[in-house]
Amino acid sequence: MGDLNILKLCVGADCVEDLTDWHRAHAHFWTAGTTEHITRMWPKRSEELLDGGSLYWVIKGSIQARQRILGLAERRGADGIARCCLVLDAAVIRTEPAARRPFQGWRYLTAAESPRDLPKTRAQDDALPAALAQALAEIGLH
Question: pTM score, two decimals?
Answer without folding.
Answer: 0.84
